[in-house]
Amino acid sequence: MPELRETLQRLDGAPYARYRSLTGRAWPLGGGGEGVAATMRHGQADPYAPPSRWDVTCARTPFAALDLTRPVRRRALAGFLARSAAAAPSPFRIDAGGQEVLQRSSFEVAEDGSAVLRLGYHLPGPRRRIDGYDAAVDLTRDLPALVRDHVLGVDLDAARAFADAVEDAAHLRAQLPRLGLVAFVADGSVLPRASGVDDRPMPGAVPFASPPSLRVEVDLPHRGRVAGMGVPTGVTVVVGGGFHGKSTLLRALEAGVHDHVPGDGRDLVVTDPSAAALRAEDGRAVTRVDVGAFVTGLPGGLDPRDFSTADASGSTSQAAATVEALEAGARLLLVDEDTAATNLMVRDARMQELVAKASEPLNPFVDLVRSLADDHGVSTVLVVGSSGDYLDVADRVLLLDSYRCSDVTARAREVAARPTGRVAEAGTFPAVRARVPAPGSVDATARGKRRVSAVGTDTLRFGEHDVDVRAVRQFTDAGQVTGAGLALDHAVAAGHLDGRRALPEVLDLLDADLAGPVAGWTGGSPADVAVPRRHEVAAALNRLRALRVPELR
Ligand code: ADP
Ligand code: MG
Questions:
Q1: Which of 140, 195, 460, 475 is deepest in the core (most CB within 10 A)?
Q2: How far, in Å, CA of 353 to CA of 447, rounded?
Q3: Ligand 1 close to Cβ of residue 246 (< 6 A)
Q4: Ligand 1 within 6 A of 248 CB?
Q5: Looking at residues 459-463, what average pLDDT do you find?
Q6: Which ligand 1 atom sits closest to the C-alpha of 240?
Q7: Residue 7 and residue 520: Cα distance in Å, rounded?
Q8: C-alpha–C-alpha distance, residues 214 and 333, integer Å
Q9: What would the pLDDT profile of 190-227 be if each residue is shown by its tens digit?
Q10: pLDDT for 340-361, tens place per residue?
Q11: pLDDT tens-digit map of 141-165
Q12: Ligand 1 mutation target, pool 206, 248, 402, most atoms within 8 A of CB
């Protein structure tokens, strides 16, 4: 009889809190396979508390045969196994995430093939007494069966195909700089989603087809040659009538910083991994951001080169978000007029005539986007259905018509050749100053305990603060929001964010840690976590109202 079953049956009828006595020991799970053990890392205080947390380790697995030398394959395999285990009916909670294939705490695979599954389990306890017999059935019969059938016994060919597909996407993304591209959209991709609340592909959608002038072919390690639209560096403007698929294309590019599950439709839609989706976000806090490129003066003598507010306007929030994205290292900006601040995007000829430049402190983005590309190597993809002034500054113009994409650059040049009388209001985008954040202001503790959790992708609970992250579009799920909070706490605890380093250096150090095992930077948190990008970590920090910046560099 397995020791865990014996122990649980002995505890039957005891006060619920005595479940805690199981904590910390590795219990061998006989039926799961050789070398399988379960450890309760965090107990459950009472039947209504969050579920207990268990690590299930598998020392011997058949996975090394799938070639796990490259981290991308380990991430992909872990994603495949987490999905397999989560899809099986069981009393266990396994976080498999959504359509993205991210490294998650729920499943990690090491190079030697060993694996750890981290799950939640509601310990049964009617009337606050231990139900040892039920718990024993779940933990010593169902859990080994789950591991046997849905982890160690998975279809290795399906696992390999999944890993190959993810590796192809990662390879494609890595090729972008060599090809002079910031994004690639494979022919046949399905960009629209099933609905606004369902991230799976839309059935019956019009598949993507590349305009001949932008068609690029790339060789992938597993799938071989693929063709699709290559979006070159520079300024790309997407035009078209309303409801013709412009925002859908841009959203697919936003998502292209991550790999997707095979069959997602965006399997081979990849974007520069530093891409930042920008939008207006009035009401947010801004802490000492140099928005001088966009704002030449502020009422009350505020210095735009050192701008703080507890309540930004649409235009200043988007200006700050742009500069913050550059500070965090974005090489590609993604902007959709649907969610942008109109007065930051453009000021047309007539408005220039009526309102003198002297009384308009905003330099519109249309006059800065060229300098970002030419002087800073930062590309932009913009959706603008309404402002023709962007045709003057575009390297290329894509038209979406009934979801079909064509290259209308030549025609746009002809249109742009006729002067409108509009004059440029700014020439160059200045270098941005980096901020040195104060560690004391990035405090995850509340009432003596660490408090880091997420409410969906809307709110990061961080210490005593609730950080509104609704406008950070590229957060994938709650686990990644939690991950950003834990990464911030780690940056302070590890001494990266030390009050001397500027934010870009802090993020460099953090990146190195985020590439390692999840347990290395989550500080023992029992939460389900997905690894965030540095850009989302920075975006969360930027929205933390407590943030203090003693110095600009
Ligand atoms: P726009 O930004 O041009 O106004 P959207 O991108 O919001 O248009 O798309 C409008 C609608 O068309 C959305 O409901 C979207 O899901 C759908 N859609 C987008 N692309 C496709 C496609 N390729 N096939 C079918 N439907 C699509
Ligand atoms: Mg739109």
A1: 460
A2: 57
A3: yes
A4: yes
A5: 98
A6: 3
A7: 32
A8: 20
A9: 999 999 999 999 999 999 999 999 999 999 999 999 99
A10: 999 999 999 999 999 988 888 8
A11: 999 999 999 999 999 999 999 999 9
A12: 248
For 72, phi then psi, to 5°, come to -60, -35
**Is residue 265 lining ligand 1, measured as CB closer than 6 Å?**
no
Show the domains of the chain with their CATH numbers: 2-154 (no CATH), 233-433 (3.40.50), 435-552 (no CATH)
Q: Quick one: which atom of ligand 1 is closest to the CA of 251? A: 6
Q: How many CA atoms lie within 13 A of 35 on its CB side?
A: 10
Reading the block at residue 334, the tokens are 């993604």
Radius of gyration (C-alpha) of the chain in whole angstroms: 26
The closest ligand to the CA of 248 turns out to be: 1
Q: Counting atoms of ligand 1 from 1, which one is nearest the CA of 250? A: 6
Q: Quick one: CA dihedral 85, 90, 95, 99, positive or negative?
A: positive
Ligand 1 nearest-atom number relative to CA 208: 23
pLDDT of residue 33: 73
Cα–Cα distance measured from residue 87 to residue 150, given in angstroms and rounded to the nearest whole number: 9
CA distance 316 to 468: 17
Residue whose CB lies within 8 A of the most ligand 1 atoms, among 190, 237, 243, 334, for a mutation test = 243
Nearest residue to 84 via CA among 147, 39, 31: 147
pLDDT tier, 1 (very low <50, low <70, confident <90, very high otherwise)? low
Pairing of β 235-240 and β 396-401: parallel
* C-beta neighbour count of 157 within 10 angstroms: 9
Q: 3-class DSSP state for residue 220?
A: strand
pLDDT tens for 530-547 read 999 999 999 999 999 999
pLDDT beyond 80 at 250: yes
Cα(74)–Cα(115) distance, integer angstroms: 10
Please report, in angstroms and rounded to a whole number, the separation of the first and last CA atoms in the chain: 65
Does 419 sit in the ligand 1 pocket, CB within 6 Å?
A: no
